Amino acid sequence: MSALAAREVVAGYEPGLPIVKGASLSVAGGEIVALLGPNGAGKSTLAKAMAGLVPVASGAVLLQGSDITAVPAHLRLKRGLGFVPQTENVFANLTVRENLELAASLAGLDRRAAREEMFGFFPDLARLARLEAGRLSGGQRQMLAVARALLAKPAALMLDEPSAGLSPRYVAEVFAMLARVRQAGVAILLVEQNVKAALELADRAVVLVDGTVRLDEPARPLLGDPRLPALFLGAREHA
Ligand SMILES: Nc1ncnc2c1ncn2[C@@H]1O[C@H](COP(=O)(O)OP(=O)(O)OP(=O)(O)O)[C@@H](O)[C@H]1O
Ligand SMILES: [Mg+2]
């Protein structure tokens, strides 16, 4: 049984105007699936639909086998699905510690215990505990955003372009952190523009083009596969 799955999901922002046009994918515990595709393909929309932030017109989102399509977004973390959006994923004017404690409170957890557990998993964050999140580096901010999502020990974690705007050094840092989260058994769905780095990290890759899944295959063999640029470029030519 997969930890997280989308089954024939149709989703969009306006009724009758689907952006995601029947997409299916699944992620097992301890697996990273990269969700790739050209700009505007619907990757973020699919992730947001799975997080409950964009309405699902038909199809289903499954978490450890149960249908969570109707579960309100704010309850999904408690149910075991964490989501790290691309932007505004931490409170810039709160300290690292306050960010973690607030997330713990919202998830109904013991604030101190949850915070200390995350400091144990991310010693860098413990060192930065008193710093305002707005003063963190890009890589540190992503680490804090992931720690916030991991507090509730989710079975699955979705991230929308955690490497966006980061220098190569921080991309490597964020991806190494995700490898550790995978090691802990979490199912990870990783939306990425950074195709090469994502294929090197992920176990499987799903390529979305115009709201439809065009490839779902083991990730590493796709490095250098000519079908990949063709799917990206083809979409651009027809745009
Ligand atoms: N809030 C919104 N309201 C209406 N349409 C939107 C909204 N957000 C995105 N769209 C549209 O949905 C389509 C898919 O966008 P989406 O952001 O899901 O693509 P993406 O694959 O994540 O692209 P990128 O790689 O650029 O992040 C685009 O045509 C976009 O204009
Ligand atoms: Mg996007």
Structure commentary:
- With 239 residues, this protein is of the alpha/beta class.
- It has 9 helices and 10 strands.
- It has helices at residues 43-51, 73-79, 96-106, 111-121, 123-127, 138-150, 168-183, 195-201, 227-238, and strands at 4-11, 20-27, 32-36, 56-63, 66-67, 81-84, 156-160, 187-191, 204-209, 212-218.
- A 6-stranded mixed β-sheet has the order 6-7-8-3-9-10, with helices on both faces.
- β9 (204-209) and β10 (212-218) form a beta hairpin.
- α3 (96-106) packs parallel to α6 and α6 (138-150) runs parallel beside α7 (168-183).
- The radius of gyration is 17 Å and the shape is globular.
- The structure holds adenosine-5'-triphosphate and magnesium ion.
- Adenosine-5'-triphosphate binds next to α1.
Helix content: 25-40%
| Topology pattern, helix = H, strand = E | EEEHEEHEHHHHEHEHEEH
Give the CATH superfamily: P-loop containing nucleotide triphosphate hydrolases
How are the strands of the largest sheet arranged? Answer: 6-7-8-3-9-10
Calculate the mean pLDDT score and round it. Answer: 93
Distinct ligands, ions and cofactors found in the model: adenosine-5'-triphosphate, magnesium ion
